[in-house]
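Hi F.,

I've been meaning to write this up properly since the lab meeting, where we talked about keeping a consistent format for the predictions we share between groups. The idea is simple: the sequence comes first, exactly as it goes in, then the structure tokens exactly as they come out, then a line or two of notes. No screenshots and no reformatting. I'm using this chain as the first example so we have something concrete to point to.
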Amino acid sequence: MATKPIEIDFFPASDSTLLVRLGSSGSAILKVNEEVLALAHHLQEESSGRILNLHPAYTTLLIRFDPLVTTHVEIEDLVRGRLQEKVEDRIERKQLDVPVCYGGAFGPDLEEVARLTNLTPAQVIDIHCSVQYRVYFLGFTPGFPYLGGMDPRIGVPRLDAPRKAVDAGSVGIADEQTGIYPSASPGGWRLIGRTPLKLFRPDQPEPSLILPGDHLRFRPITVDEYQRAPR
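Output, unedited:
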């Protein structure tokens, strides 16, 4: 039986950007995100200078192009052609171990998350560490990974008022998502811990330690282990 082609829609977002949306409201988000990342990977190999940047998300891909070189229609034709090609998936995927010191000064919202979910802080930590997470995309700030697969039992809403400052490495929860702040910034996610890993390294050829398509697991560590961890 032939595979049903994935649905696709195009939206000119500006004079130099095209938003591509894949799938429909009933599509499995994991399958659609795989298509988004594969499309971004293949378009990255476009060497004519038409495409300047690519911004994948859960089910969309924002394409920034040079309007002096190409048009929305030509980029749309290019995308349709790539989607029709049967190209082997060559995205390199990593499995990462992310040590986290939970609670206390590193996770000031852990107690509140436990209260809101009718769990103990230890149970929240156990549940948070029990899942292999998938990195769907990076956003908000450079290197911030949006992770899918979190157990809904520990899902809690964002803070009513965002913090003006969140430390780099902070691990947070927002609704049924979890993520890691790669650098100090404002933020409204509920903070349950912090990792000593440096996620964003602008001086490196690949600045982001974590990339879309990667998988990771959180692992609890003590304050002493956090302090002794290499930076």
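Notes:
The chain has five helices and 13 strands.
The mean pLDDT is 91.

If this format works for you, I'll send the rest the same way.

G.
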